[in-house]
Amino acid sequence: MTKLPLPAILINGALVDQILVNDRGLQYGDGLFETIKIRQGRPLLWDAHLARLLLGCERLGIRSDGLLKRIEQDCQSFFSPALQETCILKLIVTRGVGERGYKPSNHVNPTVIVSMSPYTPNVPCQETGVTVRICDTALGINPLLAGIKHLNRLEQVLARQEWDDPHVSEGLMLDVDGNLVEGTMSNLFWAKDGVLFTPLLDRCGILGTVRQKLLSIAEQLDITVVEGRFSPDVLNSAEEVFLCNSAIDIWPVVKLAHKTWSIGPITRQFQAKLEEVYAC
C-alpha cells in the first residue's frame, strides 16, 4: 500500500478527517485509544497496545470481532521500513454511530480512526530529568474503568490546566482518598534501598504499556517491585523517581516542590534496558 504523507488520518479505512456527529465516541466518549511510537516504520510494543485495546473493548462491551484485522489493514499504510523518522500513531476505536440515548445497540459497527504525525523526542528531559508538581484535581475511583485507556480524560484535562509553568513538565495525580496514582500522561515509579515502588492501579489510572514492560524488566533483573497505595509523602524518602509512557519513554524526576533527586542507577538501568527492548 502507498505510504501516506504525514500528518495523515484514516477513518474506517478512508483518507478523511471528519466523523459523524452521532458517533458515540463524540457523543459520550464511548471508546478507547492507544498512542504508539513508530521507529523506522516499526510500532513499538505493538502487541501490548492491541492487548490493552481488546481488554478495553471487553470491559466496555464494544464489538471486537474482526477488529484487529481492520486495524492492521489500516495501519499498514503507515508502517514502512523506509520511514526513518520517529512518529506517533494514535489509534481510536469508538463504539460507532448510534441512536440518541446512553443504551448502545448490539449491532453497531465500531469506528476505527488511525492517525500518524511526526514526533520530536524531548531528549533533555530524558537526560537531565524533569520537575513535577502535585495536582489538585483528584482521580475518581471506578474499578470497572481502571487500567484501560478510555476516551473519558476530563480529569486529566482539568489537571493539566492547573499550571502554565514551562519549567514543570508533568503533574502527579492522587485519587480521591489521597493516594498516588500516576501523572497526567504518565505512570510513576520510585526506588528506595534497591526496591522499586509504583502505585496499584486496580481502582483508577492507566496500565501503561511501558509500565508493564518495566515490571517485566524488573523481574528479569531480580529487582523487587512493590505495588500499593501510597501517600505522596513517601516520595520524600525516595532515592530515585521516574515517569514513563509510550511517547516519552522514561523521564527521571529531579524536583517536586522543595524536594530534589539525583538521577540514579536504577533509572539509568531501566532506560538502557527499554532501549534494548525497542531494538529487538
Tally the structural domains. Answer: 2
Based on secondary structure, the structural category is alpha+beta
Termini separation: 25 Å
Mean pLDDT score: 94
Biggest pleated sheet = 9 strands, mixed
Strand content: 25-35%
Query: How large is the radius of gyration?
Result: 19 Å
Shape: globular
Low-confidence stretches: none
CATH class of the largest domain: Alpha Beta
- If you consult CATH, what is the topology of the largest domain? D-amino Acid Aminotransferase, Chain A, domain 2
Succession of helices and strands: EHEEHHEEHEHEEEEHEEEEH
The CATH H-level superfamily of the largest domain is D-amino Acid Aminotransferase, subunit A, domain 2
Report the count of strand segments.
14
Helix content: 10-25%
CATH architecture of the largest domain: Alpha-Beta Barrel
Number of helical segments with 4 or more residues: 7
Ordered list of secondary-structure elements with their pairings:
Elements: E1 8-11, H1 24-28, E2 31-39, E3 42-43, H2 46-60, H3 67-75, E4 87-94, E5 111-118, H4 123-128, E6 130-134, H5 154-160, E7 168-174, E8 180-183, E9 187-192, E10 195-199, H6 209-220, E11 225-228, E12 240-245, E13 249-256, E14 259-260, H7 265-279
Parallel strand pairs: 6-7, 6-13, 10-11
Antiparallel strand pairs: 1-5, 2-3, 2-4, 4-5, 7-8, 9-10, 9-12, 12-13, 13-14
